Each structure stands twice: as C-alpha cells, then as structure tokens.
C-alpha cells in the first residue's frame, strides 16, 4: 500500500512538458503558411511587383519554392519549438542545482548514512531525478525498519523501488523526442518531394520548347533546389537536437543507476543478514 502511494505521488509531480504536441504542430503550421503568403509572397519581393515574375531578393526566391516550402517551414518551427521545450523540461526534471552537484550531496549523505538529510536535499532539489532518489531512500528506510526479512530480499525491494521510480519518471524525460526523431526523416523526404515537383515543372517547360519557357524552366529548378536545401537544413537541425537530448537523458539515466547501485551496496555493507 505504501509503495503504491509513493508511486502515485511520483506520478503526480511528473507533469513537466507539453503533452498535446499536436497543437504545437498546428500553431507552427499556421505561422508557416501565414509567413509564406503574407511575407514571402509580397509584391515588393519580386521584380515589377509581380509574384509570377522573377524574385528580387531571397524572400522572393524562397516563395518560388512553392507550397512545399511552408510544409517544411512547419517542420522546422516544430523542431525549434520542441528543442526549446525539451531544454526547459529537462532543466526542471534535473531540479534547481546542477546534476553533478546534487548527486555529490546525495552520495555524501549516503556515505554518512544520513538518510533524513538526503530526503531534505531531494525536497530542496525538486524534479524527476530527486523523485527517483527520494523513492529509493524511502525504500531503504522502510527496509531498515522491517524486521524478520532476509537482507537479500530487502536489497531486492530497494532496487525494485528504484527501478519503479525510474519507469515512472522516464516518460517525462523522453516526452516529445519521437516527434523530433520523426522530423529527422520527414524533413528530408518532404524536401525530396518538393525537389521532384520542381523538376517535373522544369521538364514540362522543356517539353513545351521555345525560348519563352525559360522563365518556367528556371522557376522549376529554383523550386527544386530551395526545397532540397530547406529539407536538408530541417533534418540537420532535427538530428543534432535529437542526439543532444538523447545523450543528456543517457547521462541522467546513468547517474540514477549509479545512485541506486550505491544505495543497494550501502545497505549490503552496513547490515547483517537476519537469522
């Protein structure tokens, strides 16, 4: 019963991050399409003020990329927004102090068998990491107060409580990362789709023949290259973001595993098996 109450308490605090990411994508899409038609499509971005003519600057050139451009722009904005969201969420998951400093405090408390101070440090730290450590320390104290149970069973209970707390908190750490991972591939594929569409237009202009089709030919090539560049840039940013956050989460997981192992070893070396 006590274990369930602890797990429920942990779950109650694990609400960091944006759960309904679909609305983030919708908002990014609105921004991207409005920017495409209202800013990139302005007459001042084209020679003679005609959007069907040659572009006069980089914004007009991007507009010539066609309707695939705002789709890729949506993906790009989503990656940027989710990256910012993950930075804030992971910072809150770690808590007030830096992870290394907090873990050094906990290790010092465990070394001195000062578990009440460890719980106070967890309360002061806050966040998912502190929740896991708090659940493990509470399991240690509960095992210490339990009589008539073998030491191996108590150690197993401590480890089980630690793993249960990690299982509860891990979704908070990895939330929205699948979206970034999807955009890694989707950005390139969408850029490739725009490239194919642009090249189709170019070949259609060539098939018609005549010097008057040179504008359509150049527009098709421009659309193809713009979408390619935009798609590759989006995927590049998504790859960097995903790997950065994955590496950071791995470091947090390793630190939590180290704390759990330290607690189990501390109990093993400081307690005798009961007859």
Describe this structure in words.
It is a single chain. The longest helix is centred in the C-terminal third of the chain and has 57 residues, at 214-270. The protein is rod-shaped. The protein is mainly alpha-helical and 275 residues long. Helix 2 packs across helix 4. It has ten helices and no strands.
Main attributes of the structure:
mainly alpha; 275 residues; disordered N terminus; 80% helix; 0% strand; 10 helices
The number of E-state strands comes to: 0
How far the N terminus sits from the C terminus, by CA atoms, comes to: 27 Å
Structural class: mainly alpha
Shape estimate? rod-shaped
- What share of the residues does DSSP label as strand, in percent? under 5%
Classify the helix fraction into a percent range.
Answer: over 70%
Radius of gyration: 28 Å
Q: What's the mean pLDDT score? A: 83
Main sheet makeup: none
What order do the SSEs take from the amino end to the carboxyl end, as H and E?
HHHHHHHHHH
Number of helices: 10
Weakly predicted, low-confidence segments: 1-14
Describe the secondary-structure layout.
Blueprint: H1 2-13, H2 21-40, H3 58-63, H4 68-94, H5 99-111, H6 115-125, H7 128-145, H8 151-174, H9 177-208, H10 214-270
Helix pairs in contact: 1-7, 1-8, 2-4, 4-9, 4-10, 5-6, 5-10, 6-7, 7-8, 7-10, 8-10, 9-10
């Amino acid at each position: 019963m006590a274990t369930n109450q602890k797990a429920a308490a942990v779950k109650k605090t694990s609400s960091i991050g944006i759960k309904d990411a679909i609305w983030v994508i919708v908002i990014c899409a609105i921004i991207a399409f409005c920017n495409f038609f209202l800013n990139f499509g302005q007459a001042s971005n084209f020679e003679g003020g005609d959007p069907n003519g040659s572009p006069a600057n980089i914004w007009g050139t991007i507009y010539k990329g066609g309707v695939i451009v705002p789709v890729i722009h949506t993906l790009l904005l989503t990656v940027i927004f989710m990256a910012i969201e993950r930075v804030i969420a992971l910072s809150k998951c770690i808590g007030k102090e830096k992870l290394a400093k907090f873990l050094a405090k906990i290790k010092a408390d465990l070394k001195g068998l000062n578990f009440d101070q460890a719980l106070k440090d967890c309360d002061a730290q806050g966040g998912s990491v502190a929740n896991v450590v708090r659940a493990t320390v509470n399991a240690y104290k509960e095992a210490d107060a339990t009589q008539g149970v073998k030491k191996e069973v108590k150690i197993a209970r401590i480890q089980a409580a630690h793993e249960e707390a990690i299982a509860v908190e891990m979704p908070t750490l990895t939330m929205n990362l699948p979206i970034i991972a999807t955009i890694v591939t989707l950005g390139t594929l969408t850029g490739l789709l725009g490239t194919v569409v642009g090249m189709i237009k170019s070949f259609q202009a060539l098939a018609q023949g005549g010097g008057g089709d040179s504008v359509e030919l150049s527009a098709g090539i421009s659309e193809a290259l713009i979408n390619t560049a935009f798609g590759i840039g989006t995927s590049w940013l998504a790859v960097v973001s995903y790997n950065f956050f994955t590496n950071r989460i791995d470091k947090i997981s390793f630190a939590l595993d180290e704390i759990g192992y330290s607690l189990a070893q501390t109990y093993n070396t400081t307690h005798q098996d009961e007859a």
